[in-house]
Amino acid sequence: MDIAIGEPDKNFAKLEALLEEAVAGDVKPDVIIFPEMWNTGYALERIRELADREGERTRALLSAFSRKHGVLIVGGSVADLREDGVYNTIYSYDREGEQAGAYSKIHLFRLMDEEKFLLSGSEVGRLELDGVPAGAMICYDIRFPELARRLALGGAQVLFVPAEWPKPRLHHWRTLLTARAVENQMFVVSCNRVGVSGTTEFFGHSMVIDPWGEVIAEGDESERIIRATIDLGLVPEVRSRIPIFEDRRPSLYQE
Ligand SMILES: NC(=O)CCC(=O)C(=O)O
């Protein structure tokens, strides 16, 4: 998805159109994900006035859509205004339209001034979708392997990653996502925005990676829907082929 900076109405309309397109085909998706800060983009100077108050508009849309179509949603992330400030939050939904999780980005990205305008979340992004344990992290979070490992140790089989990750760091994006999948032997399902915002260009390349590190779907720089089918049976298969979770030596990893 491309994102109109500082224009939530346009972005809500665009997202609704993309969601309708996603469920229109013969094969209905089980779970849908979209990019980071899709409601406002990085309009940080005006983020307090633009952010979704308590995520109300976002939650209403995603809850109604997931219930109407019986799909799971990992709701990208939105600028979310609360009493103490603005957070960067993923709201997730089950097939009945009930909230399945809310995760606010923990690691704020200084290169894009996040720490000056946003507050950092204080809980990890555990999720359960159709009974499958999963996790959520946002963009810069993938540079922190400890967080993905904690989710994996908690049972996560799929890691969802909405992002606004710009050029020229495609190499980092692909390498870090692949590393998180391989080292934790879990699926990584990521969605990165496309388009230009001021002088910043976003390259897209949303990716779905399996627990063996194979890329099973990858987008390009255009706005479009990427679809992938995942076989969750691969998680226990890879984990038994190379039993890293049994071979860990956590007592040696502490400072
Ligand atoms: N929105 C973000 O967190 C961007 C992170 C990023 O670009 C990086 O290199 O890390």
UniProtKB/TrEMBL annotation:
GO terms for molecular function: acyltransferase activity. It comes from the Bacteria. Pfam families: CN_hydrolase. Residues 1-232 form the CN hydrolase domain. Transmembrane segments: none annotated. Coiled coil: none annotated. Belongs to the carbon-nitrogen hydrolase superfamily. NIT1/NIT2 family. PANTHER family: DEAMINATED GLUTATHIONE AMIDASE, NITRILASE-RELATED. This is Nitrilase/cyanide hydratase and apolipoprotein N-acyltransferase. It comes from Paenibacillus mucilaginosus 3016.
